[in-house]
Specification:
The protein is of the alpha+beta class. Among the domains are: 187 residues, Hypothetical protein af1432 (Orthogonal Bundle); 139 residues, Beta Polymerase, domain 2 (2-Layer Sandwich); 83 residues, no CATH class; 57 residues, no CATH class. The chain is built from 29 helices and 21 strands. Strand 7 and strand 8 form a beta hairpin. The termini are far apart. Bound molecules: manganese (II) ion. Manganese (II) ion binds next to loops.
Amino acid sequence: MCGKALSPCRSAFNPVIVAAMLRQYELVERVLAYDPDADQAMLNRAYVYTVQKHGAQKRASGDPYFSHPVEVAGLMTDLKLDQETIATALLHDTVEDTLATIEDIEANFGPDIARLVDGVTKLSKIETMAENELAAENLRKFLLAMSEDIRVLLVKLADRLHNMRTLHYIRSPEKRRRIARETMEIYAPLAERVGMYEYMREMQALAFEQLEPEAYATLTGRLEQLRSQDHGQVDAIALAMKQALAAAGLQVQVWGREKQPFSIWKKMAERHVSFEQVTDIMAFRVITQSDADCYRAIGVLHTTWQFIPGRFKDYVSTPKTNGYRSLHTALIYERSMRVEVQIRTNEMHRLNEFGLAAHWAYKQGDRPDGQVGWLRDLIEIVDASHDAEELLEHTKLAIYQDRIFAFTPKGALFQLPKGSTPVDFAFAVHTDLGAQAVGAKINGRHVPLRTPLNNGEVVEIVKGASAEPQLSWMGFVVTGKARAAIRRAVRAKERAEIAAIGRQLFDEIAGRLPAKVGKKAIRGALERLGFDVEEELMHAIGSSKLADRAVMEALVPGSTADLPEEPGQGRAISIKGLTHGLGFVLAKCCHPVPGDRIVGLRQKGEPVQVHAIDCRALASGIDADWVDLSWGEQSFGAVGRLRVVLYHRPGTLAEMAGIFAKNHANVIGLDLAQRDDPFHTYEVDLEVQHLAHLTRIISSLRASDAVAQAERV
Ligand code: MN
């Protein structure tokens, strides 16, 4: 069970030091081998820095911790990556796991390396999150979106690959399984997405062994068995192909492809086929000298053996989006055996396994400085490009341009549509948090709640104890969840206000009853009226859905039998300034509502007529006494008259009715007063609570697209 990092001869005396990790000079020499201009002093400093910072920290294997970043750096040299990436690999865990800071790294290694290390550190945050907190796809998207520089992603993938190679040292089976599952669901697909097939396959193999130990053991055993029963058949077919191609003048290499337990298992599960059906098919790879030879080779194979129709794929002239190029076909060998063949040049093969990075190099053609060049170009484009679209075109990384990803201070990740604000974020975290938001901090700095969020920002919501969602937030929130929650809260607040008005009315109504109204009477009333809670009763009274008499009757059955009909339309109108016992009516010409300045006209034998002070009827000089009046404190509910001009088209009348309903105003009368297409003028009598209520309704009407004009008559 010796990992790649371990020497076969561990000393019994000092097991810590002898682990044969890559030595400092070996690492530097590896870089110099492909980049002779590399800054040796810098690489040496990075090596020493990570050794010092990680100090006596240990890996689960018992190795010193710094063996891990050194191995990750080694993996990066296999990909011939630039010195900044090598240094980043060496330093990638120092900020997360030691006392080192980004500032310190910048001071020692410059802003470029600091930015890369910071990028890897940010990606590592997701590992500290609770499992299942977010779907794997979400995390993959996040990693892609965050990896603005492909080198960050490459270091992260190498980091994960090395952790998988040393996974068996971790003693807790739960932890091993968690890491393996993460690898299978997040990192292997990511490696695939950027075309790093070698990384992908190794990660899958190691994770599969951990996650499905029985399936792994069974499949490995059966593959072993197959190989022993093969009797050189694979070699024989490879040789036959090679000879047929050589006869046509083609110089090729042919080899049988190893079957991977995981890919067999996946095919069995996905296609519901047996082990035999998967392994029946033998797979070969043909490496040719040139692109043209690929097509010549497939011509030879197709004329020598029968090919299976529909299985030919030309990814040479039309590469896959990740840059993969190869010809694929399937043949029938000796009338019974199915044989899959991939044909490609050596260059294509290297690029296919090397991934997105190599695809870049390929498109750039020959370069004097070889492997390091593609990266330099890519970085230049990333740096120079302020246009997100262009960046996307070049890196194929930022696939999720329409999403942003933001963290809570505890490191939980939330995916939101682009343009989302701290309010959207707060509601995404929890409805209560959204409701209580009064301010926000982004990366520790106070910002207005309407500030659009950027990728990777840490968002802290400042809470206020009695804060409530504001209608004005509707102007900038983008998520449906936030919209719905704000609307709900505003509606609830309105309900509460109306219920409060209702409670005042209730007290006034109850005061008219001879006996004191206690809890028992209220419970009885609720039952008789079919309400569950007091709040519903108060809301019904407040919104004028319940007449005073009905309330009294419900509280004390029979109590209203002897009462005369109530004067006026007002439900709880009291007028100050009237001689006690004098009846009154609210005038039908001006429809005064509580809040209007009023005056009374008194004629003998009639109830006092209550007019608005600016009513035209007053100007015509009615022969009556003028009485100075004002509204009683408990006055609520009267009929106001509006003139509303609607555009004559379907739905406008319903829209108006909706505005009345939303504002809890009962329509008492509705007349189509005038048709003057495209305008229809309505006169509406509305039961409203008070002047402010009426004014609010008029403003809502004026704000509507359906309404051309709205005013009080
Ligand atoms: Mn690491």
